[in-house]
Description:
The complex is a heterodimer. Chain A is of the alpha+beta class. Chain A has 5 helices and 5 strands. The interface between A and B is medium-sized, with 15 and 14 residues.
Amino acid sequence: MIVKKFNETIMGLWSLLVGLKVTAFNFTRPQVTVHYPRQTVPSLEGYRGHIELVPQEEDPFKPKCIACNTCVRMCPSSCITLTAIKPKKKAAEDKDSGTAESGEKSKPKKAKPELESFVLDFNYCSLCGQCVQNCPVDSLRYTSDVYLAGFSRQEFVYDLLARLHDQAAQKEQ
Amino acid sequence: MIEAIPTPLIVISVGLAAILAFIGLNALVLVYLERKVAGFIQRRPGPYEVGPQGILQPVADGLKLVGKQIFTPTGADSVLYWLAPMISIAPALVCFVAIPFGPHLQIINTNVGLILVLAFTGVNVLALCIAGWASQNKYALLGAARDISQSVAYEIPLLLSILPVIFMTGTFNLFDIASGQGAWPWQWYIVYQPLAFVIFFICALAETNRNPFDLPEAESELTAGFHTEYSGMGFGMFFLAEYAYMVVASCITAILFLGGFQGPVASGWWWFLAKVYILLLIMIWIRWTYPRVRFDQLLNICWKWLIPLAVLNLLVTLLVIAI
């Protein structure tokens, strides 16, 4: 009993010295912080910002999104609102244009719904990532945009489709 | 006309002025040192913006404290409330009077130097007690209560760990104790009394309310403890006093165990200052390494370990001296 207690004390004292060694070692190592306004961190990879749409490979102006509404249903805070052009109307348009231009009778193909608007209310987003995980076509990803500051809540309601267009236009320039 | 003023009075006046300057300068240096060391240990730069490498940061902090509104909370006992910071800083000045900084650099060479320092550092407890009592704030009161039980407990092993050195030298005169040791490290009393040195240093940490024994001002539990309600220079005085007592504790440790102003090659105040600053750096290093102890642990360390060990050490020393 006494021996055990004695050993515990010796180990405790030893751990105190180990602690001092750890801090002394870290004292000599280089700093890991940056002087923020003058320097910024080199890489923000892996940072979870708000979500954005992923463009199609062939057409950077169009998102991969198929407007399936999975993200809207998955979102626990209901911050995603999504509208799509209805497939029936689209099919009819296709038919009209098809007959007008080529005169051929177009196949009754299954028209895909096309995304009309994709709005994210970032005020309520908890960055849980359910939308990104569950997107069937991987059309959502995190941005690495950390410099977010604004004066009103409206500034954090993002039109992600417009954002995608802007990004594509910027890339083309 | 100058002959009309007694010489000791001139010496003491000039000395006290010098001490005030020394305390102020030390506080500036220590604040900077503390924050820089903390930064480096946590791998960040520490103060950086004011002046080159942030060297003017303590000056900016001091100016901010001086410029702040002095405010007495409602329900506080205003006389005691403003008396407390003064009671806290004043004994620190007296302590420096007896400390031999160098062979010729001592204001009063008195036979009871050590007792004087110990007695006046004890007055600080009263200041904290008054501060906590007069603030009309439960956190302040709790902080004061903690400080009293802590100081009373740690005063015992502190004195018991000094006694072996006193028995070895046979004097309370700080100058004689310092000059009784040789110039080289193996001639210092730390070699003869390593246990007393460790106990004394731990008690000094506790008496100056430094981490890991900073329970009277435990930020996470008591906001700021006894000085919760103080603003501006009221807080500034407590702060100054805390750093002054740290310097006093380091000075006494250096004199009792590390040979004081004696050092290899050339003895002088530079050796004394170097030793004091090394001890202060160790105090800062300890602060940024260890978490705060719990209150029962604090008292257990004192009553179950330090006091028995100090008594044992004293007895063994006496036995060796007697033989």
